[in-house]
Design a protein that fits this description.
The chain is built from 10 helices and 7 strands. By secondary structure, the chain is α/β, with parallel strands linked by helices.
């Protein structure tokens, strides 16, 4: 039924006041995990996100290394860092919420494939002025995926992002950050830059499949996917939505 609808279902069918969402490939790091959430079981609860970490040692299988490196560098963040931009840095793998809040502000069920359903929900929470806080109560992400599966999910997420941006549902998220970071304050992409991204996409994938994948190249691959999804690969300068 899709990644958004499956998160709404416990609220519709549940019997209790609070819901704790955990991805099924989550490892519980210690016996204090549930206790750390107990202080937040009160009527003032908005959304409380616990975060995620990855195992410290890299996987033995090289095909899992890309996912592990990305998660270790990009997703394993402290609550202090996540609380600087709580809505932008929300992930739905580990969070506590009241059942009534999900019923009042459900996930957008039009998204059925992988990617950005949690970002869209966080934007809805922000617009509804729902409090979202991050705490240091992470789960261990155990379900590392082979590079082919991981990159297919990257492409799926970018397809969702392009669709959402075309509907003005995720202004300020996703590709704008990639543009700003890698084109140095430029709000335009020239034709030759787009052509280069299109040309080098297969080389990006080859590099990311090795033992030393570059996160910068992964971001450029995401940008290339975005141009592909929006039909902008061969066009001239394109202004970024603000």
């Amino acid at each position: 039924i899709g990644r958004a609808a499956i998160r709404n279902r416990p609220a519709k069918q549940g019997r209790y006041d609070f819901l704790l969402f955990l991805d099924c490939d989550s490892g519980i790091p210690d016996s204090q995990f549930l206790l750390n959430y107990l202080p937040f079981l009160n009527s003032e609860l908005g959304v409380v996100a616990g975060g995620r970490i990855y195992q410290s040692a890299p996987p033995a299988e090289s095909k899992l290394y890309l996912h592990w490196k990305y998660g270790t560098l990009r997703e394993s963040k402290s609550a202090l860092w996540r609380n600087l931009k709580p809505y932008d840095r929300f992930h739905s793998n580990n969070f506590l919420v009241s059942r009534n809040l999900i019923l009042k502000c459900p996930f957008d069920e039009s998204l059925k494939s992988y990617g950005f359903e949690d970002s869209l929900w966080a934007m809805d929470l922000m617009e509804a002025k729902v409090k979202l806080i991050h705490i240091d109560n992470p789960v261990v992400h155990l379900g590392l995926e082979p590079k082919e599966v991981f990159l297919n999910k990257v492409r799926s997420a970018i397809q969702n992002l392009a669709r959402l941006n075309s509907q003005d549902k995720l202004l300020g998220a996703g590709p704008e950050r990639i543009y700003r970071k890698y084109l140095v304050r430029s709000s335009f992409l020239t034709t030759w830059v787009k052509a280069a991204l299109k040309l080098f996409k297969p080389l990006f994938v080859i590099q990311l499949s090795g033992r030393f994948p570059s996160m910068r190249l992964l971001d450029l691959l995401k940008l290339a996917y975005y141009l592909e999804c929006t039909g902008l690969e061969g066009k001239g300068k394109t202004e970024i939505n603000r």
